[in-house]
Design a protein that fits this description.
The chain has 72 residues and is mainly alpha-helical. It contains four helices and no strands.
Length: 72
């Protein structure tokens, strides 16, 4: 499904951002969007969080459902 792919992309963006914070102390989202409390940053953080929650559902999809989504 399209929403699964969007959630995956947002989750990867969040993981890379957290990796940058952990390894280098650099928050890419805050840098690009005007700080951690900027409205755009907060929207991105919220979307990444929602994507992470959605991604939990991907863990519980049965094999047939997954292969049907990949066939589309």
């Amino acid at each position: 499904m399209v929403i699964d792919k969007i959630a995956l992309v947002l989750t990867i963006i969040g993981a890379l951002n957290w990796g940058g914070i952990g390894l280098f102390g650099f928050d890419t989202v805050a840098f690009l969007c005007g700080g951690q409390m900027a409205v755009l940053s907060r929207i991105i953080y919220a979307l990444v969080g929602l994507a992470g929650l959605w991604s939990i559902t991907l863990l519980f999809q049965r094999g047939e459902e997954r292969s049907a989504h990949h066939a589309v």
